[in-house]
Amino acid sequence: MTLTKTKTGPDVRLRGTASAARKKTFWLTTMMLPAAIWLLLIRYLPMFGIMMSFLDYRLPTRKMPFPMNLLKSEWVGLKNFQFLFTGESLTMIRNTIGYNALWIVLGLLISVAFAIMMSELTRKFLAKAYQTMMFFPYFLSWVVVSYFLFAFLDPTNGMIVRAQRSAGGAVVDWYNSPGYWPYILTICSVWKNTGYSTVLYLSAITGIDRTQYEAAAVDGATKWQQVIHVTLPHLKPMIIILLIMNVGKIFNADFGLFWSVPMNSAPLYPVTQVVDTYVYRAYTSTGNVGMSTAAGFLQNLVGFICIMIANSVVRRLDADSSLF
Amino acid sequence: MTTAAARKHGSFRLNVVSRKAETLFHVILGVFALACIIPFIFVVIISFSSEESIRQVGYSFSPAAWSLDAYNQVFNLGDALWRSYFNSFLITIVGTVASVAMCVLYAYPLYRKDYRLRGFFSFLSFFTMIFGGGLIPTYIICKNLLGMSNNYAALIVPMLVSPFNIIIMRTFFQTSVPFDLIEAATIDGSGEYTTLVRIILPIVKPGIATIALLTALGYWNEWFLCLLYVTDRKLYPLQYLLMEMQRNAEFLARNSSMIGASGASAISSLPSQTMRMAVVVFIVLPIACAYPFFQRFVVAGLTIGSVKG
Amino acid sequence: MKKFLSLILAAVMLLTLVPAMAESPVEITMLLEGCNVTDDAAVLEKLNAYLGEKIGVTLKPVWGTWGNFDDLAQNAVNTGSSEYDIMFTCSWTKNEYAPYAKKGAYVRLDDPEDNLLNEYGAELKTVLPDLLFEGAMTEGPDGEKGIYAVPGFKDFATMNTWDVNVTLLEKYGYTLEDVVKAGFYGWGDIFAKVKAGEEAEGKVFYPFVFEGAVVERYVDGTPIVTGDSSGLLSYYMNTEDVSVPGAYGNVIFNKFATPEFEKFARQMREYYLAGYIDPAIAIGETATDTWRNAQNTASYLISSEVSLYGYEYTTSEARGIQVAYVMTTDAPYIDNTSVQGAMMAISANSAHPVEAMKFLNLLNTDPFVMTLLNYGIEGVHYTLNAEGEVEFNADARAAYSPWTNGLGNVTLLPPQKGQGADFQKRFAEFYAGSKKLPIYGFTFDGKAVETEIAAVANIKDAYALSLFTGAVDVDTALPELLSKLEGAGMQKIVDEANAQLKAFLGE
Description:
The complex is a heterotrimer of chains A (about 325), B (about 300) and C (about 500). Chain A is an all-alpha fold and about 325 residues long.
């Protein structure tokens, strides 16, 4: 990987004496230390817990304190992973990956478009107002969102339901009709996450040197051509990085969105069951921490593989934009 | 600065999208922004509704009766409310400052193509974005080894470093700082820290503001750490006060038959729905007020542009 | 690699093993469930003075709430934390009694080599009924049967009842007798008349309001099979006499595969389609709120309730109607689930098991300790009226309300206002009339079929509430559910349960 590349020696572009290079490395390394130590302590040290995926976990007790209990726990191989591939688990795998794939693309298109639109507004006051408003969803937990939705879809008092009834039309039993929910969930997801990624793209646009637009304008480029030839190329690194990182979460799902928003309604499971809700239900019914650790590990592993693939594709196309 | 001033008055104003396109942008963005704010307005309305009205017609934009009960209940929390406010502010401010500093310091060398250990450290942080030890081992390390139990550290330290933010920050460096600038500074004999603080940081201000914003939002919204490591009510952040009410209600809803008849009385003694909404209002308002502060750097940058020469 | 790993593990262990310093008096930490306590200083001061003098112990309660207890307890047991000496446990929290006793999270109290119960809990043993200890018998880490927690002395028998709004019933010329006689399968006419009458005023009215997740138990007489936390298994009891086996004998079934279940589901479907059931009751997250809300606002005709002795007075007063509870069995039945409904365990990581036992002994036998911990200080948190009943001081109580049933022996407490001075006596007499189920003492251990349970529970959850509440068509949903369950290994779970039951009964 990159390791081998960097080990070839000091960068040729900055020619200096060996001692200057060493000094530079030293000072730059001191910058990394605070976060690096944190990573080692709080992220790396607990990683021995991945072992639990393969163990019939025994509780630590006074006679067998942590972490000796891990060594004493029986090795069960891949047994803890089996439940993820038993029964109806195919549905949840399909849902998890399907929704994620759709939302990654949709989220990218919408937030890049929004960021560009906002950057082109001449009234900055309104641009600021829109941006502030777009962050509000971030503060409402999915539970609160679910109340909001329920106010519309409540089978007896819901605003939509009442309107349908008073119009004499057929009343939709929303929480009993899976067909609508892929759309509802998609809208909710876009609604909640757009503000967050829009601000990332917007600040990346901010970093673009305005003289480039001026130059393009002088050359007679239309606004649209400027977006294509100036804005997008500058956004490319951010787009690629966010894309790669989202691909890494392709097997993770937002529990609250899939549990609270559909009000945990049973008939909707075929379209709302995702890996996190599946594991949650499995864990509540068995209390086996080995199984939930295994599920988490598998999610990570899938993410890791996807990132590696995505990254190597990107590296082949454009080495500078790749993650590492 | 002179270019910025010139831009404000000069011919640059001509280089804008057509009026038609801009109107369309306003419609699209405006509708979406409204959709983002309406649920919050809804929350505000519910917080001012009477419980009786909710029992009868459920949640509604036009409740049958208005009431200030929810806010009276919230104010009845008294010290607990103001303490949790204080805690939330403290955690958010300290956490954000420390976290952003560490993030920038880590991301900057990762951007330096001439830094020898770049590959190693980039992998070090990237790997933790994907893999983690899981809840139990992390809990053991944080609580037993690092002593994070019933103290502010427990609410700040576990989310100090975000590999996601590091990568984003590195991308900001990449997109807005030309490498020649560093070469020039090095030739001038400027020390690494001096270069970073004097030359680089002013350029990536929008990036830093963005990271700071995201981090502050993260700290302000955080409640799970409190659930894990804190039982002392004096340390509760505001968000946890709300989550505790929420979780109490959810638990009783799921285990009602097990707790039996005493569960019914437990449910009826829960804080009202309207009060929970009032607490949401209390949580959102301060950060909504703080938002323009960050925004100054993010959006204002749009007109100023970067300082690079 | 392995050596390196062991080294790290050893280092971590050394650092985590901070030696506990001996102090006097010994401080006991107790993790409680369902409490709402914001100010305990005065109570603890008084309590600890008493405890210190009496048994050389001070108490530090950690007032868990419904919302955080599960996480606190689960993290403590899973990480082997020594921070709690005593921990609430039961059949429905995440630190569930039987499985975690089996995993070794709790100290065995009647260990033949170190019998804490005999040595430091002699009084407690005489005060609590033997049948409570019988129900607390469960397997430990090495398969040895024993007592791993002190069972709470409360309403230890299950009373599944129909909660009837008598006031509304009589408004339409029916009597309680009619409801009892017609039974679940014959309520259609009553529902129709009451619904039509109530809706004549222009509002929507649902006469039948219940807890969907468990209502099938009331109709079919299927108690919880202890250990089946996901509700997959059914044991059919004899509702005429719960102490003898039912028509099927002592056999466990796939809950959804019996003719009884199908009949029940079809009836529910009929009621649902007729508009007698609120559709919100069929939605997971709104089910309980809808049910409780309808009860509290008295907008129901028949509802369900796991009731307890004397509860109709409380609810009638609170709802402003006359409430009657109709038991669905001949007597309250004693099963492990109800006996294990609230317990106190000593953590296997406690540094002070002896002191913890001494304290539990006092908590369950000394009215002063129990009352102080539960109700607070007389004159501050409550006053005693002329009849010797407790009247709470609302403000002080608001800052100090532990969950009574989660604390220990509730029979030591003075009666509350309206209960009458002899309440505890009547309470005890009533529950003395309860009967043990034939499979009392049996706890299903799903360890061997965990993979199947995890998969099956996910399938079951996609159908159960809808079938229980009539929200889906039985003809399509039920066969679909059954075939999916079969595919995920349901039969293996049922067979395992029956094998275990057979072994248990054979002993």
